[in-house]
Every structure is written in C-alpha cells, then in structure tokens.
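Tutorial sheet, problem 5. The two components below are modelled jointly, 790 residues in total.
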Amino acid sequence: MLGLFVLAAVPGSLLAQGAGTATHDDPRAGLDAGEANSAEQAAWNMDLVSWTPKPIPFDSTGGLTYASSDLAFRGNYVYQGNFSGFTIWDVSNPAGPEVLNTTLCATDQGDPSIYGNLLFISAESNRARIDCGIQGVEDGADRMRGVRIFDVSDPRNPTLVKNVQTCRGSHTHTLVPHPTDSGVVYVYVGGSSGVRSADEMPGCASGSVEEDPNTAQFRVDIIRVPLSNPEAAEVVTYGRIFEGLQPVGSRGGPSGCHDLTAYPEYNLIAGACGSYGLLLDASDPENPVRLDALSDENFSLWHTAVFDNHATSVVFTDEWGGGTQPRCREGDPFELGGNTILGIGTDGSFTQHSYFKMPAVQTDTENCVSHNGGLIPIPGRDIMVQGWYQGGVNVFDFTDPGDPVEIAFFDRGPLSTENLIIGGSWGAYWYNGYIYSSDLARGLDVLEMVPSEHLTENELEAAKLVMMEEYNPQSQPHLTWPAAFPVARAYLDQLIRNEGLPAARTSAIGSTLDAAEAASGADRRTQLNALASELDSDAADARDADRVRALAAVVRDLANAS
Amino acid sequence: MKAHGQRVGGGLGALLVLVAVVSGCGQGDPGDAALPAGDPSATAEVTDEAAEQDPHAQHGHDGLPATAGPGYTVDDVRFMQMMIAHHDQALRMARMTSEQGAGLEVSQFSERIDISQQDEIRFMERWLDERDQAIPGEDERHAMRMPGMVSPEDFQRLGEARGPEFDRLFLNLMIEHHVGALEMVDELFASPGAAQDSELFQFATDVGADQMDEIGIMERLIDRLQPA
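Model answer (structure tokens):
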C-alpha cells in the first residue's frame, strides 16, 4: 500500500535516516487472538504477574464507552480512569489486585491524577453530566466538560467535590504544583475538542485569536486549586503558548495541547500540541513561557512526552490515528506513529536525534500506535516502559538518544481476528517495583522485569529502592536513589557492560564492594572511602568517566552512611 | 461560512443547504459550471441561490436513509455518511500527487492523508454498519454536497497542473476542503443531542483537531513554496 515513501530518494532527510518498517521476525507477530486473558502471549525479559478483568460495571464490549484509560498511583492504591468513570485498586498484593471502588461517571476519557486525597478526572464528552449520570445530556445546563475533583480520603467511598467547567472540556490534564506555596496546585488542561456555545457556558467563543481575543481555541486553560478549599478551584488564566508559530492570517495550527508533561524539579513542561512539540518554562505556572517548538512532517499528532531524569532529553510520542487505528502493520512507516527523541539544550532548545517504534508487525485488527509510559528508575540509564495499545507493552533504553534500543516486551494477540475491537495498553508505568498496564478492554495487568543481558539483577534491585508516595506520570517526579550497595553495583555492572573501565579494575572494585558490605562501622567506612579515592583516580582516564564519577559518589555516600 | 449555516436553520440539514460545490467525481454535472472556485464567500452566495433553485439540494446526503438509535441521533448518522464522502474526495486528491510531479513535502503530506483518511473511512463504515445504517456507495459519495468540496473545474485544473503549480493549487484546495470538514464537525457539535456516542465523539473531535492542525501544516508548506 505504501509504495510512496519516496524517502530513500532523499538522502539526508530524517525520514531516510531511520527508514524501516515493522518486522514479522518477532515473537509478537502472528499471536493467536482471544478476549480477556485468553489470547496467546509473547514475553521477553518481563513476566506477567497478574491479570485482573475490569470491574463488572465497566465489563462491556461496548467499544470506547467503557474503555479503561490512564493510571495514577498513591501508596498501595492504583487509580484507573475509564471513559465512564474510574476504579480504585488496592495493589498491596500485586499478584492479586483488589477493587476498592468503582465509580460510574461519564467522562470520555477519564484521565486521573492524584494529589493527597484529591482525585482529578478529565471529562471531555458531550455526554458527561454534572451529576455523573451516564444517561446522556439533553439540556446543556446538565453538561460537565472540564476537570472533576473527587475526595478519595475514603477510597471505598469517593465523593465529588467540584466540577471545574471549561469551554472545551478536558481530554487530559497535568498537575503543576505551585513552586513555593504548598497549599496550591495548578491543573493544566489538555484537549482540542469543540468549543461549547456561549449559551451553555458564558464567555466561550471559538475562532482565531485575531477574530476574537477571548477565543477558547489556541490556548491552554489553567485551573488553580487551593488545596484547603478545593471547592474554590477554577480556571484562573490561560496560556497563549502558540503565538507566532503560524503565518499571519492562519486558519489552522495547533489549537490546544493533547497532553502536557510537567517536570516540576526543573520548572519545565513538555507540551505535545498538534503538529508541534513545545518546551515551556513554568517557573510561574500562571504565565508559562515557550522556550522552543519543533514540528516534524512525520509527526501528525504530538501526543505526550517523557523527560529523561536530568531533563537533557525528552521522548515525544505521535498518536497517529488517535489510538483507534492499526498503525503497526507491515509497511506502516517506522517514523510515523512512534516516538521521537529530542535533546534539550542548556538554552531550552530542541535537537532531534532519532525515532523509535515498537518493531513487531501487528494485524489490521489491532489498534496500535505509540502511547503512554514513564521511566524505570535505573540509575545511570534512561529507560522507559510504554504502552502501544494492542502492540503491547515494551521497554527501551534511550540513554543514547541517537540509538534507542528495545530491551523487553509483553504482548497478547488481538482481541479478534475479524473486527478491530479497541483495546490494548493505554499506558504502562513502573511504580514501586512493578509495571502496571491499563488495558482498555481487558482490565489491569501487573508485570515484572526479569534480569537479562540488558538489565542486571543489581540494576533492577537499585530500581526497586526508589519508593514513591505518589506518582502522576504527567507530573514527572525527579528520581533519586538512596546510598545503597545495589546502586553502586548497578553502576559497576554498567561499566562492565560498556567496558567503561578495564575488566581487571571492575573485578577488583566488585571484590572491594563485597568486602565492604561484609564489614561494618568504621571498618566499612574506611574501605569505602579508600575505594572512592581510587575511583576518583580511575575516572581520570576511564572510557566512561561520568559513570565512574557517579559510582564514586555513591560509594562516598555509602561511606558517610556507615 | 459558519455564521451562514447557522442562519439558514438548525442542525445538519442547514449544512447541506449552505454547501458549496459538487464533488468533482465526474465532469459536467448540471449546475456546476456556475460555481466559481477559490473564493469561499462568493461560493457560499451562489450556493444559496442554487439551493433555492434545486429542490433536491437539501438532501445533501442524497436521500440516504438515516435513523436515530440508542445513544445516537439522525444527525450523528448523517455526519458519518457525509464525512465518508468528504474523505473520499480527499483520497482522490491525495492520490493525484504522484502523477502530477508534486514536491517531496506535498507528496509526504498527501501520503499521510491517504493512509489516515482511508482508515477513517473504514472506521465510519464500521460504525454505520454496527448500527444497521446505510453506507453511501460510490455514486452517492460523488453526489453528496458538503462544505469545502472541490468542484469538477478545480479537479480539472489540478489534473492539468504540474510540479510547484500543482503543489500550490493542491494545498489551497485541500485547505478549503479541511476547513469544510471543520464546519461539518462544528455543525455536528451544534446539533441538539448529537455526538454523545463515545466513539463518534472521539472520532469527530480527532477529525476536528487533526484537520485544523493539518491546515496549519499546509499553510506552513505554502509559505515554503517558491513564489508563484
């Protein structure tokens, strides 16, 4: 079908650089179909720990109406959005998640975020009601398009605290904590749906900014939530972050952001906004300032973003086809419907490095395209887990942003070989040692990474030391590791893998670490301080000096903690 | 154009009346010759007159049956039926690029339209089929009237244009075509009770967002073309 991609004829174009298409030579290609957990599975370097079907109120083959959406995490609870509400799971036992509550409430698409006891839920649909009913809307006064706020202090009995109405509804949203006032959190509203009439919501207008400076298009609405009084949450301002991107008199361009990923540690926001990826400075969350914007002819729908831990690179996804189309077929181009990896300069400018797409051929009854994910906290490496709808879950390493490499996957066959039934992983996230994947149709999957040549036992153990209280993937947490032996050994394993130090040295360092761990008190401190000094010298002429220095720092921290 | 539609009356019926041009499937459809190309406001005026003269104009979906059902309205069904025809014309335009010596950027852009809108047609056909609604056949697709459709004359001009001249005409016509799709989405959302079906809502929202953004891409492509 795709004869075209004239790419090969264009030396030097980005398209030509990464040109390629999906392969049949992969265990994920050609899996037998089946609903629920009955489809054939393929797994590499990761195992399925548990599969739990959707709770009965959502257990429907009714297409998107009862599809699961995104995830948020707090303590032992997983909050799973749904096009018709949300589920609160207790995952104290990852092998057997339990439903604590299922709340029916029409949303489309119901993306959740959790902040303390407040659960935020996006509602965009024309059918979403102020009273959460699922019977549809006849009178516009009953319609609720915006962000709902629930109090979930009792996870078995969530209560609706506030409906924050917006002109275009909320497809997604992003929590941006106030940089200094811990009593305030902002919510950036993502979405590009139609503008409601001014009859339904006074002040709403559509059209270009030239036609109407108050137009609800071409802007991002910003909600301010006073945490002590969430009933007072309201849209306080909006960011006109697209100005100057289009020619004068333009009738098009990005009119909203599908998704924004905040990285509060660096006061940055990566906006995935139509045909642009944006970088915003959000030091003042009520006045976001655009630092850079990148368009790419290959990217039709900039969808979401994940920063590396140091905010020196960012993975942007392209949800070509909106998630309901099969875009991983034989011949579907590698550069469309996948990820692009950008570098972020110290001046906040983007540089494009590479494309990455789940490489296995999927059928034309499997909706498949790049979708949501987050970092796995491996010290010293940039590793991301990601959902690809019916293309499954995969894990890739983008430490070298120019050469992303897949290192693990889990996939099922299609829901059906006859019809495209919408399903698959909406998003997959590492949270406190496990990977949770929200399947639109099948329910909740819990997965576990398995040590391999690409990821050692020590690296995984180090990742498991990062315990989060709360995790909203669109409000990216900064990862830090405790001073611990597995973290040191993770760096050492990496130096062995990439020959960043001669084998004789890595072997000696390993022995010293073992001896120090066996010792205690002052003895241990002395050994570790000596090792740290040796590592300082090693770094001088090591092939991977940065990693040696990172190892020295951990060893020094360990010494101080002894 | 939008204000025009709202003045004529409510719902999608009005859209059909307001609409501009015939699809350009074949040459010489009666009445086509009177329609000017390129100036949307002029087109709209002429169309209103044409609509008054043509008793069938309000059947812009060519008399295809459409009924309401659980969770969807007649306007929802008509939107899908007409958007199939609208996409159908975009596909025919997109597939001209290889013959006409289009530049690389226009070729790549039209390839994406080809893949996307072909899939979307399949999606809309499935949506209609699952609800036992009529799917427009080829003749019906060619006979339907919707905003932004390219006239037979413009199709002919496009077929005669080559290289950079083709690129410019293609982009300008496709922008108008996309603007028409946005109007169809706006009209759908303005129709009482419409777009409450989750799949249709998401689809119509995506069409609106994607095509508005593609207009932006095409405007940028035009900016990069050599001056005519």
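Marking note: Chain A touches chain B through 57 residues (CB under 8 Å). Full credit if you identified this.
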